[in-house]
Amino acid sequence: MTDPAEAARRTLDLTSVVKSVGLEDLYQDLHRHPELAFQEHRTAGLLAERLRTAGYAVTSRVGRTGVVGVLENGEGPVVWLRGDMDALPVAETTGLPYASTVDGVMHACGHDVHVTWLAGAAQALAATRDAWSGTLVVIGQPAEEGGGGAAAMVADGLHDRFPRPDAVFGQHVAPGPAGLYSHTPGLIMSAADDVHITVPGVGGHGSRPEATVDPVVAGAHIVTRLQTVVSREVAAAESVVLTVGEFHAGRRPNIIPPEARLALNLRTQSPKVRERVLAAIRRIVEGECLAAGCPAPAEVTMDAGYPATVNDASLDEQIAAVHREVFGAQAVFDFGPAMGSEDFSLLVPAGVPYDFWFVTSTPAEVWQAAPGDELGEKLDAVPSNHSPLFAPDLSVLVPGVQALAAAALSQFA
Ligand code: ZN
Ligand code: ZN
C-alpha cells in the first residue's frame, strides 16, 4: 500500500495513456450492441481482445461468458478489478446517435460504462507497468442483473484457478451530477431476495363462486396485507423495501382460475431484519390462504438472493483519500447505503477486503434542467439506472478509468 498522494501521482502519470486508448469508441460500440445476461459473447470478446493485446493472460468462458485477464508484474499484492457486462430487457428511448441497435435490449444500467472503465484501466496499468509491481487480475463478469453471474464464475473455479486477491475493487455509474465519487465505509448496498408464491384455489364458472375458492381474491388480500410488513413490523430506523412485481392469474372474465402466482422482491440491510420480514411473508401467505379456504397450503419459494455489499471500512477510507487527491476533496462524498443490490461481494473470496463505490454520471445540462433545488428532488427527476432514458455522460469515461486505476495503484508496491 502506498500513501494517497503517491497513488494519485502514479494515477495522473497514466492519464495520457487512458486518453489514448479509444474509450469513447469502445463505449459507443458496446452501447450500440447490448447483450442480455449470459449472452455477452461479443462484449466478452471485445474485452478479451483488449486484454490480450495489452499482454494479459486471458481465460474466457469462466462462468459461461465471463473473462479473466491476469497480468503478473513482479513481487507485490494481488488486486482484482471487476466490471459487469450484461444489459437489460429495456427498449431504449434516449435518441442518442449511438443508441441500442437491438430491439428491446439496452445498457440501461451502465454496464457498458463498466466494461469500458475496466478495459481502460487494464490497458493503462499494463502500459505503465514499470511504475508499479504486483499482480493485476481483471474480471469481466456476466449476468449481474439477477442472473447470478458472480456465483457462476465462483462455481467455475474463479477462486482456485487465479491468484488469490489481497483486495477487490468495483464501481458503478449512478444518477447525480457527473463526476462525483460516493464512498461509504461499510454497508453500501442492500441484500435482495425474490420470493415466489403460488396460491392454490378451486377453479370454476364465474357465475358460481360458491362452488370455487377464488385465488385472485386471496392473492389480492396477500398483496394488500404484505404492505403492512414494512409499515407495522419493521422499526422506523431500518430500511426495507418489499415490492410485489408479479401477479398472474386467469385468462377469461367468466372463469375463476385454479391458481394465482405472485412474486415479490425484498431489499433489506441486516440479516436480522431480513429473517423477520421473510417470516412475516410466510405467515401472511399462510394466514390469507387459511382465511380464503384454499384447498392446500400456498407454496412459498425463494431464489438464491444477493447478499448486502459491505465495504471494508479502512480500505474504503484509503481509496476515498486517493480519490480526493486525484479529483479534489469536493468530488468525494458519502451518500450512504443504497437500496439497490449487487452480486459483486459474491465474487470475493471469504475474508478478503473489498471496496465498491458509485460514480455519478448525469450530464451537467440534464442535471441543471431537472426541477427542484435539493439534491434529492433532482435525483428523483433525472433518468436513473434501468430507465429507458438512462444515458451516462461521456465525460465520466476517463475519470472512471482513473478511479479504478488509482485504487489498484494504491495497493501495489
Ligand atoms: Zn442494474
Ligand atoms: Zn448495474
Report on the structure:
With 413 residues, the chain is an alpha/beta fold. It has two domains: 4-189 and 308-411, 3-Layer(aba) Sandwich (Aminopeptidase); 191-302, Alpha-Beta Plaits, CATH 3.30.70. The chain contains 14 helices and 16 strands. It has helices at residues 4-13, 15-20, 23-32, 41-53, 111-127, 149-155, 158-161, 215-233, 271-292, 313-327, 344-347, 364-369, 375-381, 397-411; strands spanning 57-62, 66-73, 78-84, 134-141, 167-177, 181-182, 187-189, 191-200, 204-205, 241-248, 255-256, 259-268, 299-302, 309-310, 332-333, 354-362. An eight-stranded mixed β-sheet has the order 1-2-4-3-5-16-6-15, sandwiched between helices. Helix 5 links the parallel strand 3 (78-84) and strand 4. Helix 3 packs antiparallel against helix 5 (111-127). The radius of gyration is 24 Å and the shape is elongated. Bound molecules: zinc ion (2 copies).
